[in-house]
Design a protein that fits this description.
heterodimer, A: 595 residues, alpha/beta, Jelly Rolls, 3 domains, 10-stranded parallel β-sheet, 9-stranded antiparallel β-sheet, globular, disordered N terminus, B: 304 residues, alpha+beta, Phosphatase 2c, domain 1, 7-stranded antiparallel β-sheet, 5-stranded antiparallel β-sheet, hydrolase (chain B)
Chain lengths: 595, 304
């Protein structure tokens, strides 16, 4: 009999045992920017896949994932862009993201981020369910940490679905230099861990989960991941004062509520099919006095004042206001509040339904930012075209960075529907071919074009440049399909004399001929010639920039191996406004830098 | 009575467990046997100067080596950093080891299927240019890729490192030395700024490439000039023949050790007529004895 009892005991124990699966990234699905170029493996996003290769070493390694920017330099440069509806950004902002997949879908228990240079930029971790729903696992402000490599394991929320796709968001605006990541490890279980058993999970965790890296110089002999989490918390690297916790939980609550709200609003609209169109201007208050009385003291205010106040609210709060009463509802949906619309922060809940729901308010919209939205087929190209047809005729600014739904036909539509377009950002839209880009030649008023990591060709680009005499800002970073950057720059110098900023990061085909031509763009304030490898011996071509562009504020010359002091002397003489010079990997003495 | 039933049940359970364990282990073994073609390899080597070198993984002095595997191919390679850069304050081992490590990363990333070794070397060389910290120097390199689908080996060689493939005691394929002139091999290089005109630099396209169908049991020796300059080919072939068809990594390691040790001893034998001394005599230089150098031996057998 004793034997039987012992047997049952072990069986129940087996049932209770939680199996933790520890996996490293199997593939990188999407990202917003990377330091390296697509034809290389140095400093690129794909380095995040697999086991850590450099941890626990601390430093700047080509084997790591590095993003394109850091600090405030890029925001404050002449080419810096302003967010639309900046109030949407909230207290925790982010500039970059990366999507990583894992072999097996698990209920996430822990996410370990191996940071090997300037840690602390991670601000959010998202998980995507197999059905396509995003849930926030963790959110926290960017941290100022000690310069040492570390495994960061943020405390995760429990979610009710298994995931194999994570999105990490980064805020590197407070960093001194680029942050670098080595690997990401997802620890999870096949079965959801029941709430009441979570305690046992924690106790089981130490024997079951074992970190695979034996080396632990920085953490003085720590091996188990659980220990590291505890230790990190002890070190107060991320300080969770109760106040922060509350605001986090509120904002997360809102994050989850927001799509629901949108849906509710939509339902309400369906419920009143014959409702008259929304008021076009606040001068005709549509509500009866009896209704406005519901707004209390607000009813004494003229609608213009209320609208002005509402103008400071972000999208989430506007949706909540719509639920107060009819008066507020009509005011909070006034098209004047939606002249600018920034949806990037809400990428996780932008879908055809929410777009349809927003549409009635977008009659006057001029500036639209849909960056990061609609990936993984959440928005189809047709959905976007439909949306654009309804609200695109006044658009002057359109940002579609990292939007997978942008295709040739969408560009064609943009070109035909938005004649007033001044700004178009298409970062990372690799699907657009030269046929799509050629359509842009019909736009005459373009002032800012962002083609970072697109497959634009020389012919299409030259045609666009010739038809856009007002062009001020142009980003051609990491455009690998431009067969001769020299010809592009020659066209620029002839046809685009207004040019203020030019980004030629990683333009392997640029030679000193092109640089010489740049000297003719006399209004240039910012030029990025980083990693133009055919330019490693610039000769005297840089002089033409120094003498031709007296307003120069920022110049990037990274990796010009032969750059010497005498190349920079003319800049010191002629460009009194110069603020930032990147001379990484150049043979320049400290003497000239100090000047 | 009850207890007998229970013990019987326990007993049968134990036996059943034993059987299932046995069957699973045997299927695993079958999976192992069914594995695709691959290389069983071993490495041995010596830095030229023990006293002043720090031992690093994948490096022997200025020599570097790597082995990498992905679904499509099994890759081995060696590189020999050119020692002359030490006079300019540049560590010659850094260039060669970066070159090899990048090759390894390129193969392991698996994003490039069926890459030819010349492309691999070229890609790796261009990664040097992409590094933020300029890695200067120059290096010879030799890379062998076993294509796991068609059982061909593809090779690329720049400079005086090289390989020999032996089948049943016969040399069936070997590399050809690439030299500009005596003791000056072809080399990939990144010279310090301002010196580019003065330095020999060969483009990765200059690599000597070949392809060769291998059979099960073939023995491949991939080594730097520290081996080929000091050990006569006949001695190498004799040692390698011992490994025909061998799949035990320990035995391969033993022979690799033997070849490396032989090279090391002959390099410091001042009376021995080494291949290097013979080559010198052909060029009108009166020389005798071995050539002290870093030695890297990468020995592999083909298992199909």
């Amino acid at each position: 009999m004793v034997d039987v009892l012992a047997l049952i005991d072990t069986i129940t124990k087996e049932d209770n045992e939680v199996v933790f699966i520890e996996q490293f990234v199997s593939d990188v699905r999407d990202f917003s920017s990377q330091y390296g170029s697509d034809i290389s493996i140095s400093y690129t996003a794909y380095n995040l896949a697999g086991k850590p290769s450099k941890y626990p070493d601390y430093g700047d390694y080509p084997q790591a994932f590095v993003m394109r920017t850091y600090g405030r330099w890029w925001k404050e440069a002449p080419s810096g862009v302003r967010e639309f509806m900046p109030q949407n950004q909230g207290s925790i902002i982010s500039q970059d993201f990366i999507d990583v997949t894992f072999e097996q879908a698990v209920y996430p228990f822990q996410v370990n981020i191996y940071e090997i240079y300037n840690p602390g930029a991670l601000v959010r971790v998202w998980a995507r369910s197999l059905q396509g729903k995003w849930a926030l696992l963790w959110e926290g402000a960017a941290q100022a940490t000690r310069p040492m490599s570390r495994i960061f394991s943020p405390p995760l929320r429990t979610i009710q679905f298994p995931t194999n796709l994570l999105r990490l968001e980064f805020d590197h605006s407070n960093l001194e230099y680029y942050t670098e990541l080595d690997a990401v490890c997802l620890v999870g279980t096949y079965k959801p861990f029941p709430e009441n058993n979570l305690g046992t999970c924690h106790t089981l965790q130490n024997p079951v989960v074992r970190s695979r890296n034996g080396s632990s110089s920085n953490f003085s002999g720590l091996v188990t991941v659980g220990d590291i989490t505890n230790r990190v918390q002890e070190m107060n690297i991320h300080q969770f004062s109760p106040q922060v916790d509350i605001s986090n939980s509120i904002s997360s609550f809102l994050d989850h509520e927001f799509p629901n709200l949108l849906r509710q609003i939509e339902d309400m609209q369906r419920a009143i099919p014959n409702r008259p169109a929304l008021p076009m201007s606040s001068s005709q208050p549509p509500e009866l006095p009896s209704h406005s009385a519901n707004s209390g003291a607000f009813s004494n205010l003229p609608d213009e004042s209320i609208l002005h106040i509402l103008g400071y609210l972000d999208l989430k709060d506007l949706c909540r206001c719509a639920q107060v009463n009819r008066h507020f509802r009509s005011l909070s949906q006034d098209p004047h509040l939606y002249i600018e619309l920034g949806l990037r922060k809400f990428w996780h809940c932008v879908n055809p339904i929410s777009l349809q729901c927003l549409l009635p308010r977008l009659t006057y919209i001029q500036k639209l930012d849909m960056s990061w939205c609609g990936n993984y087929r959440d928005i189809s190209p047709d959905d976007f075209i439909e949306f654009l047809e309804a609200c695109g005729k006044n658009l002057s600014h359109l940002r579609l960075n990292c939007c997978k739904f942008v295709t040739d036909s969408s560009i064609e539509k943009i070109a035909s529907l938005c004649p007033k377009l001044e700004e178009l950002a298409l970062q990372n839209n690799t699907k657009v071919t030269s046929r799509g880009f050629f359509c842009l030649t019909s736009l005459r008023g373009l002032e800012r074009l962002d083609f970072y990591r697109t497959s634009i060709t020389k012919e299409a680009l030259i045609a666009i440049l010739k038809s856009s005499p007002l062009l001020k800002h142009l980003n051609l970073g990491s455009c690998m399909h431009i067969s001769s950057m020299d010809e592009v720059v020659l066209t620029l110098s002839k046809h685009n004399s207004e040019l203020v900023s030019l980004d030629l990061w990683k333009s392997y085909t640029l030679t000193s001929v092109g640089v010489n031509a740049l000297g003719k763009c006399s209004r240039l304030e910012e030029v990025d010639l980083g990693w133009c490898l055919s330019l490693s011996t610039p000769g005297l071509s840089l002089n033409s920039i120094a003498y031709g562009c007296p307003k120069m504020k920022k110049i990037f010359l990274a990796s010009m191996r032969c750059l010497a002091d005498y190349h920079l002397e003319p800049f010191l003489k002629n460009c009194s406004l110069l603020e930032q010079v990147d001379v990484l990997g150049c043979s320049v003495t400290a003497d000239i830098i100090s000047r | 009575m009850h207890s007998i039933v229970y013990t019987g049940r326990l007993l049968s359970r134990a036996i059943w467990n034993g059987i299932t364990n046995y069957t699973t282990s045997s299927t695993e073994a079958q999976v192992c046997r069914k594995r695709e073609p691959h290389l069983v390899h071993a490495v041995c080597g010596f830095p030229k100067d023990f006293t002043h070198t720090i031992l690093k993984k994948g490096q022997f002095g200025d020599d570097a080596w790597f082995h990498a595997l992905n679904k499509a191919s099994d890759v081995i390679g060696v590189a020999d950093g050119v020692g002359g850069w030490r006079n300019y304050g540049i560590d010659p081992g850094e260039f060669s080891s970066f070159l090899m490590k990048t090759c390894e990363r390129l193969v392991c990333s698996g994003r490039l299927k069926n890459m030819l070794p010349a492309t691999l070397l070229a890609r790796s060389y261009y990664e040097l240019l992409e590094s933020k910290r300029p890695i200067l120097g120059s290096s010879t390199a030799c890379v062998i890729v076993l294509n796991r689908e068609n059982c061909q080996v593809y090779t690329a060689n720049i400079g005086d490192s090289g390989f020999v493939i032996v089948r049943h005691g016969e040399v069936v394929h070997r590399s050809e030395e690439q030299q500009h002139y005596f003791n000056t091999p072809f080399q990939l290089s990144l010279p310090p700024p301002g010196r580019s005109g003065l330095v020999l630099s060969d483009s990765p396209d200059a690599a000597d490439t070949s392809s060769f169908p291998v059979e099960d049991g073939d023995v491949i020796l991939l080594a730097t000039d520290g081996v080929f300059d000091n050990v006569p080919q006949q001695l190498l072939v004799t040692e390698m023949t011992k490994l025909q068809g061998e799949r035990d990594p320990c035995k391969i390691q033993g022979v690799a050790n033997a070849i490396a040790w032989m090279a090391r001893n002959l390099a410091f034998d001042s009376t021995f007529m080494s291949p290097f001394a013979e080559s010198a005599r052909h060029n009108g230089i009166e020389a005798v004895g071995g050539k002290p150098d870093d030695i890297t031996v990468l020995l592999a057998t083909v298992a199909i």
